[in-house]
Amino acid sequence: MKKRLISLLLVALMLIGVLAGCSQGTTKTGSTDTPPPANSDTSSGSESTGYKIGIVTGTVSQGEEEFRAAENMVAKYGSDVILHVTYPDKFAQETETTISQVASLASDPEVKAIVFTQAVTGAAAAIDRVKETRDDIVFILGSPHEDPATIAARGDILLDVDQIARGSSIIQLASDMGAETFVHYSFPRHMQMELLAARRDGFKAKAEELGMNFVEVDAPDPTGDAGVPGAQQFILEDVPRQVENYGANTAFFSTNCGMQEPLIKQSLETGAIYPEQCCPSPYHAYPGALGIAIPEDKAGDIEYMSQQIKEKVESKGGQGRFATWMMPANPTMIEAGVAYGIEYAEGNVEKNDYDAMMDIFKGIAKEKGVEANFSVLEGTDNFLLFTIGSQIF
Q1: How many CA atoms lie within 13 A of 250 on its CB side?
Q2: 173 and 157 housed in the same domain
Q3: Cis peptide before 118 (omega within 30 of 0)
Q4: Distance (Å) of CA 89 to CA 127, 221, 289
Q5: Which domain, by its residues, includes 195?
Q6: Is 368's pLDDT higher than 90?
């Protein structure tokens, strides 16, 4: 009997040792409730990074390109490293929701950087809210909507396309494509934004210089009562009216992302000219407008997408009358912002290493065979503006 008790005791001790070993293994590799990064080798028992990066974008209806870019970052680094939230479609009226979303990211002590693209109305207040309790987070803001001086005083690094330079370059491009009239769709909320208003003024001045007719058209604000569908319907109905008034050599431009798809569709149907989106990119609105399906193995392949656009445009007789940048603007801001956030979290850069940010951005562009050029917004040292060359389909 005594021997039997000793044997049972030995078995129990062995089981405890096995269970303890399993427990130690689980602690080392992290909780199984959180999936590992997409690019990690789960069989190697890799350690957690110890930090997280937050991304704030619009929804699919307000800015699909940015939303997908954030999803790509989650897929690349893993949902335990990248936390993605969205601001509401009617963000101008629902700033408290935007503030709450940003605050929710900052409530996680492991979040070391927040990449906010587009940095819509409410971004400044959200940063103020976060800094009441946390001053260690680096904020990287893409395409800010608020007054440059106000938002530059709050964000650590700001990125945007060079709207001032585009005031001249887009009109010149439209002229080179045969435009005699340039129609500019916008609404009061956007025209209260300093950089967009300055770009509009640049359009006017360059159009006058080239002898081009410049037409401003007030469109419904997508954040208003009619929402994005109402704004899109207006574009679908108004483009044919403008072409009837001014002829097919009319170039169209809108300041709003949600309007781009119907604008491309109707410009192609009416034989008009479409020089560039508000946020220039081969992926912005062109796939939806032209019915381009992107195979899984071609995701992120800019050359493939550009060729598909070219073929679709040519099939409708629009060759030489549609264009965009050679690389997507806003998704690159997100990719570069995440890369900088990781460098910051790992202690390789300070909050405001502007040269490092420009080098990261230029490196991403170079990998895609494109050159990016930077300048700094006058009156600031952290508001970085960039341009990329155009392609005509």
Answers
A1: 27
A2: no
A3: yes
A4: 20, 11, 21
A5: 163-326
A6: no
